[in-house]
Write a structure and sequence with these properties.
The chain contains 14 helices and eleven strands. It is an alpha/beta fold and 412 residues long.
């Protein structure tokens, strides 16, 4: 079966809602034939394999085609009359994303990226001089330095928490944060999965502790949305930020901001554009007030809905299991070969981000060699960062591990 036929077969299955007998076995969780069918939906070459989902992912053909189709539609007719349909397409996207995350549509804002979502919370929460924000030192700068910048402007206090470099249990990750909270703490700003260590924080437990003290819990989910099955109500965070262009494999420049219903009114938006509404009956409802930005890329926003369809076709739990399986296999192969990993082997303590310890002075050289000699595209964040996503195959993971083993001479 060629790649075009594979794509047609995949989406024929989506349309009919049933698996044809000839591919029934391929639909079983853990089946490599099934995942090769999923891989065929992506246009990347086998000699240029993306393994940096923590930064940017390719979009599947279904999503890319939808964005292209809608972009062309606007170019052909950019009238208000023609573009009127995008309002319903946006709401369709919102509803699909909300359903996947266990949230209501009114709690979801579709912003531009995680950075914007983080800063919306950073600037929108009302704080007073002397208030404290507790952050993780492994947060992304937009959920870390951004708090420090605001603190300098308004006289807040930022307390930065470090966790053990070799956590053995979730208690090792809970303790440092619990000890840092004080009577002045108003916000606990966390990262679900670190992009520089691969550590996964026990968010649900930390949220319970923080809420006992009336503390707002903000969660950067850039490394979990699309890679894991997320239930925001179960995680019990007050706000959550993520980007579609990472693990979710959606269009670029569309992000997610979730704000729990009872917290929306207390948080101010960063931007007030004409879409905000100039009369009570036109004021944006719920979290929509955070996406008032003027002209947006309507095709990209609708394209996130296509990405949601793609995830639903595969199943978010199945994707979660696949990412975990690939990351676990990669870490096992590397440890067996003697490579030093920052990321824990345990799937409870880590996510899909895998960090191999490489001296900073050698990282660029190793990264380039992985790309040129083994066709694996990674990153140098925290070391040599390799992040297999659900479109990767076991062969990709094995090739990446082989590359690390052969390139250890560059830093050993």
């Amino acid at each position: 079966m060629n790649r075009l036929d594979s794509r047609r077969s995949f989406f024929n299955l989506m349309a009919t809602g049933a698996m044809a007998a000839s591919v029934a076995h391929a639909a079983e969780p853990g089946s490599e034939p099934y995942w090769r069918l999923v891989r065929s939906q992506f246009s990347f070459r086998e000699d240029r394999v993306p393994m940096n989902a923590a930064n940017l992912c390719p979009t599947p053909a279904h999503v890319a085609s939808r964005v292209e189709e809608l972009t062309r539609d606007v170019d052909i007719d950019c009238s208000f009359q023609n573009r009127d349909k995008f309002a319903s397409l946006l709401e369709n996207t919102r509803s699909k994303v909300a359903a996947q995350l266990g949230a209501s549509a009114d709690e979801i804002a579709l912003v531009r990226n995680t950075s914007e979502a983080n800063n919306t919370i950073n600037n929108g929460i009302q704080l007073r001089e002397g208030d404290e924000i507790v952050i993780w030192d492994e947060n992304h700068p937009t959920n870390n330095i951004a708090w420090e910048v605001r603190a300098k402007r308004f006289g807040y206090r930022v307390t930065k928490v470090s966790v053990p470099s070799r956590p053995m249990s979730v208690d090792d990750l809970i303790g440092p944060f619990e000890r840092a909270l004080s009577g002045r703490t108003k916000v606990l700003a966390l990262t679900h999965v670190s992009n520089v260590s691969g550590f996964r924080l026990p968010v649900k437990e930390l949220a319970r502790i923080a809420h006992q003290r009336g503390i707002h819990v903000h969660l950067d989910g850039a490394q979990s949305w699309g890679a894991e099955q997320i239930d925001l109500k179960d995680l019990d965070c007050d706000s959550y930020a993520a980007s579609a262009h990472k693990w979710y494999c959606g269009p670029r420049e569309v992000g997610l901001l979730y704000v729990r219903e009872d917290r929306i009114a207390a948080i101010w938006p960063q931007v007030v554009a004409p879409s905000w509404g100039d009369a009570p009956e036109t004021v944006l409802k719920g979290a929509r007030k955070f996406e008032s930005m003027g002209q947006r890329d309507d095709a990209a926003l609708a394209g996130v809905g296509a990405a949601a369809e793609f995830h639903n076709t595969i199943g978010t739990q199945r994707i979660d299991e696949r990412v975990t399986a690939l990351a676990t296999e990669l870490k096992s192969l590397l440890r067996e070969a003697g490579a030093n990993l920052t990321t824990p082997q345990s799937a409870t303590l880590s996510g899909g981000v895998c960090i191999i310890q490489v001296p900073e002075s050698n990282r660029a050289k190793v990264l380039d060699a992985m790309y040129s000699d083994f066709g694996i595209a990674g990153s140098t964040s925290g070391g040599l960062r390799l992040c297999p996503n659900f479109y990767n195959t076991r062969e990709h993971v094995q090739r990446a591990a082989e590359g690390v083993v052969k390139l250890r001479r560059l830093w050993a």
